[in-house]
Amino acid sequence: MKVIKISAIWCGACLITNKVWKQLKEKYSFDALELDYDMDEEEVKKYSPGEVLPVFLFYSDNEELGRLTGEVSFDELEKKYLEVNQ
Amino acid sequence: MKKVLFFLFLLIFPLLTFAKEEDELKLYFFHGKGCPHCAEEKKFLNNIKKKYSNLKVIKYEVWYDDSNAELLEKIKNEMDVKGTGVPVTVIGDTIILGYGSGTSEKIRRAIEYYQKEEYRDAVSEILAGTYEKRDSNIDSFSKMEEKSDKEMTVKIPIFGKVNLKKVSLITAAVVIGFIDGFNPCAMWVLLFLISILIGMKNRRRMWVLGLTFLFTSALVYMLIMLSWIQVAVKITAIIWIRNLIALIALGGGIFNLYQFLKTKDDSGCQIVDDKKRKKIFKKIRKFTSEKSFFLALLGVMGLAVSINLVELACSAGLPLVFTELLALNHVNSFMKFLYTVIYIIFFLIDDLIIFFIAMFTMRVTGISSKYNKYSHFLGGIIMLLVGLLLLFKPEWLMFQFK
């Protein structure tokens, strides 16, 4: 399982979700990839992040299983993680 | 089309409600040819005539017409009023000398008063020789105004006598300024700037550049608001302009509530246009890495000015509403400045908190997007409310509820 977080330094909601992202990484074992919307521009484009940040993408075997957008709580993030990880 | 008709209805409805036929109300306007204040009042009277169909404005030129000048002197003698110069306005038993800040509203209030209360045409009586001097040295309208001024003052323990109008305007400055501060329009620039500043090794430079950006932004915002107030004071007496401002406030309110509903279940940051973002980031990097401290300072100041001007359209609603509120209440120049400073201080609070936390912890902190949503919601409600009151009950915005 691979979880990708796309965020930006200028985005308040991205900064707020740093905490829940860290919690998820501590609680579960998965490949975590953090991409910066400006610094990793080319790679970010591949995932078509849309109009709102942050974006959490859940991947398995190069296939997108789901995504969450915006300022999510830990419960929402964990729920999605468990849902796609079944 | 429906929206257009709705806005037209909002524009025309208040004019219709005031257009009921009543007994003729005469307003005597004594003016001098070439007198600038008279010209201003003349414009105002031409406009206000459209609102009150029963209002008849009778003009007397007194600088070139001796008989009119004599008549004015006679009226002033009979009505026991001292003072020279023009313009002089007489309505009912009320005489108003001069035309300055607040006069147009006073004339409007006098018209409203005589529409409802007993109307006595003092000038006609003087001309006919039937005028009987009042028992007291003050006319009934001015008496009512004095009474309502007294009623606006309440005694509060510790604080003593407090003027409710002043307290209401201070409260409005605090509340509207604070809500406006959460507007996310320029927040992304501040966060990016802080992230770059944190990467610097020179702490003094970090503090000075960051604070310069914040205070220059505040100064630009304040100057824009102060210039709007100056314009608003001049144009707010013109009914159609006031209705237009009301419609802008209503439009802003509806847009903000729409934004709130649209993002009610979503949260996060809307991605700023790539081209615009990259251009600004390039500037920030350039200015902050400038070897000359003075050039870096100038660059950051220039950036703050341009950002605030560019983002003005995004955040104009609440400042516009607040400046209109000040214009309607005819506060003096010092108080206008003071209320605007209070507004700006509260507008700046969230930015300062983010900046100080970042400078002390060396980590960038964001504000939850739920506060931006509440800012849209509360800002929308305030704009709608002010827009509706401007159209239907402007006196309530002057804190006159009778």
Q: Can you offer a commentary on this structure?
A:
The complex is a heterodimer of chains A (86) and B (402). The termini of chain A are close together. Chain A is 37% helix and 31% strand. Chain A has one domain (2-73): Glutaredoxin (3-Layer(aba) Sandwich), CATH 3.40.30. Chain A contains four helices and five strands. Chain A has 86 residues and is an alpha+beta fold. By secondary structure, chain B is of the alpha+beta class. Chain B folds into two domains: 18-149, Glutaredoxin (3-Layer(aba) Sandwich), CATH 3.40.30; 163-397, no CATH class. Chain B is 67% helix and 8% strand. Chain B has 17 helices and seven strands. Chain B has helices at residues 2-17, 36-51, 66-78, 103-116, 122-128, 140-151, 164-181, 187-198, 203-235, 239-262, 274-288, 293-310, 312-315, 317-328, 333-361, 369-392, 394-397, and strands at residues 25-31, 55-61, 88-91, 94-97, 153-156, 160-163, 269-270. Chain B has a four-stranded mixed beta sheet, sandwiched between helices. In chain B, helix 8 runs antiparallel to helix 9.
Quick recap of the structure?
The complex is a heterodimer of chains A (86) and B (402). Chain A has 86 residues and is α+β, with helices and mostly antiparallel strands. Chain A is built from four helices and five strands, in the order E-H-H-E-H-E-E-E-H.
Mean pLDDT of chain A: 92
The count of domains of chain A is 1
Largest sheet of chain A: 4 strands, mixed
Q: What is the residue-averaged pLDDT of chain B?
A: 83
Strand order of the largest sheet of chain A: 2-1-4-5
Order of H and E elements of chain B: HEHEHEEHHHEEHHHHEHHHHHHH
| Structural shape of chain B | elongated
How much of the sequence of chain B is in beta strands? Answer: 5-15%
The level of helicity of chain A is 25-40%
Q: Please, how many domains of chain B? A: 2
What does the secondary structure layout of this molecule look like, with pairings?
The complex is a heterodimer of chains A (86) and B (402).
Chain A: E1 2-7, H1 12-16, H2 18-27, E2 31-36, H3 41-46, E3 52-53, E4 55-60, E5 63-69, H4 74-84
Chain B: H1 2-17, E1 25-31, H2 36-51, E2 55-61, H3 66-78, E3 88-91, E4 94-97, H4 103-116, H5 122-128, H6 140-151, E5 153-156, E6 160-163, H7 164-181, H8 187-198, H9 203-235, H10 239-262, E7 269-270, H11 274-288, H12 293-310, H13 312-315, H14 317-328, H15 333-361, H16 369-392, H17 394-397
Parallel strand pairs in B: 1-2
Antiparallel strand pairs in B: 1-3, 3-4, 5-6
Helix pairs in contact in B: 3-5, 7-14, 7-15, 7-16, 8-9, 8-11, 8-15, 9-12, 9-14, 9-15, 10-14, 10-16, 11-12, 14-16
